[in-house]
């Protein structure tokens, strides 16, 4: 690989973003994109296995940019990229940006199917009423004017007024206020409003802000930092009203799609932790700008904030290296609640604004799971409640007022569209709903951005702006479940090749068969590997749930709540058909939206909830699935649809399940039990690897 003559620091332009920069010869294109803030998906952490980081080189003389771009200016395909192309295929002109290295000036096109900025983000707050007892009190007082015969300082007379009118004793003041007190009191003609911060269990009350005269506005932030999305609510501390909500993609995605990829990035790059901390803090600051603009609120009026996130997001937001969370014993740097000034992490709100982070439950069960627990309250119920937050690392909570247990389970990114041949994140144009006729095996589907089904008049016109671009998580769950219900796949997940005689949608794919969901360009096909990826993901989640049920000595759950933005789009029926969750009355399975954000809002508006969740987390029993010997057994059984050994009588009463059909790996009917067992055991080992 020799660079073009006289090229030492090639100029690279990324389109359509227009971002450009110079990089040393040999720099991987993906690294250049990350340094410029160009968002390109990378699920595998740069190992050339996921195929999500595809780019195209634009050839020609781009005079406007003074760049001559050529395929000769990028390294030839290496062994990893050739292996990926041989196994999974690469469209013409596409390259894997994690493997391709810069040799000369380049214009790089980032195809829209690899850009993640446009993903659909659920950000609205729920409408629950929360009893207010905030950590912030706004106290208006009238202060005695100075008197030569009473030589008390202005600050001392302010303290006396606050004690007299509000019963506040032994007050402390933030130091930054001391130089401002005299000017504020005189500007207010000896009246002022003090913002008092006091935790529920603290004897210390502290003045954190001071205004001349009457101040009747005070706001707080409730923010859920997810590995994929960040959601924020701006809330009035005086009324409890949500003044504004906003959400954005987590920019850390450019460093790694899943949590372990980000930990690996930190381990392999000396500046990795700092880069991801800066990225998430800048994203949070950008959301503050958005909610302030929407709510017509000044940053200086924000006095309190509550943040939640999984352990790795929690650590990176606080500037803590998450490396220890990458392997056993998964040690947290801090597990208890964190109380700091917002300015300690560079968050520009009111100068005295506070920041509270809920406690983490365990090394893989974070403050977001604690917030979900606070929101849904299994510890307040008699029923056995299961809470599932489906993500790259699913968090599971099971319990009632007697006992609560929690675990995480390594589902991977398949439910978010990664590892799926036609998969993508939820964005306009993505298939989100699927139905398959059991007689004809013909599909119909709905896409994000259109209310019409694909077989309805006007559908083509309704998706003209976006097209049909791929299939997102909810669509993947439904298409696999529908393929099972219509007999296209067996309970072992094998595509029945004999059905190719009935339908042209069953097509050979090497030694296996695939199902064509959508013809045309792009052609969307559900392959045998796609089915396997979903089986692995759902088996990991179910196995984690099964472990918790055993710890609770129960063979059933009374109620199931899907938490998280993705959970809001999951149809409970199809989740149960797939075997993602255990058997339960379907009318007792519900999506609760961003319950982590709701829990954060509860902790913001009522300091008693902070005490409650801290006490609850201290009692929650943490189960580490990686150390449980029965996890693999449950995993193997859960590879089947819906499960090899667990009955689903309540589901069977509501949905007509197909008769059992055992297939061999190549899609031929027959007894494949010995081979199936070997395959499932290999899958179990991969799921725990």
Account of the 3D structure:
- There is one protein chain.
- The protein is of the alpha/beta class and 689 residues long.
- It folds into four domains: 11-114, Beta-grasp domain (Ubiquitin-like (UB roll)), CATH 3.10.20.30; 117-265 and 283-301 and 339-356, Ubiquitin-like (UB roll) (Roll), CATH 3.10.20; 374-413 and 533-688, no CATH class; 422-527, no CATH class.
- It is 28% helix and 21% strand.
- It contains 18 helices and 29 strands.
- The strands form seven sheets. The chain has a six-stranded mixed β-sheet, sandwiched between helices. A six-stranded mixed β-sheet has the order 28-27-18-19-20-29, sandwiched between helices.
- Strand 1 and strand 2 form a beta hairpin.
- Helix 11 (528-551) crosses helix 16 (631-638).
- The relative contact order is 0.10.
- This is Electron transfer protein.
- InterPro entries: 2Fe-2S_ferredoxin-like_sf, 2Fe-2S_ferredoxin-type, Beta-grasp_dom_sf, Corrinoid_activation_enz, Raco-like_middle, Raco-like_middle_sf, RACo_C, RACo_linker.
- Residues 663-689 are annotated as: Disordered.
Question: Summed up, what is this model?
Answer:
The protein has 689 residues and is an alpha/beta fold. α8 crosses α14 (595-605), α8 crosses α15 and α14 (595-605) packs across α15.
Labels describing this entry:
689 residues, alpha/beta, Ubiquitin-like (UB roll), 4 domains, six-stranded mixed sheet, 18 helices, 29 strands, 21% strand, disordered C terminus
Strand order of the largest sheet: 14-13-12-15-17-16
Form type = globular
- What is the helical fraction, as a range of percent? 25-40%
Instruction: Report the sheet with the most strands, covering strand number, pairing sense and barrel closure.
Output: 6 strands, mixed
Strand content: 15-25%
- By DSSP (H or I, 4+ residues per run), the number of helices equals 18
Instruction: State the end-to-end CA separation.
Output: 35 Å
Structural class: alpha/beta
Count the beta strands: 29
User: Taking all residues together, what is the mean pLDDT?
Assistant: 89
Spatial extent as radius of gyration: 28 Å
User: What is the number of independent domains?
Assistant: 4
| Low-confidence sequence ranges | 116-122, 671-678, 684-689
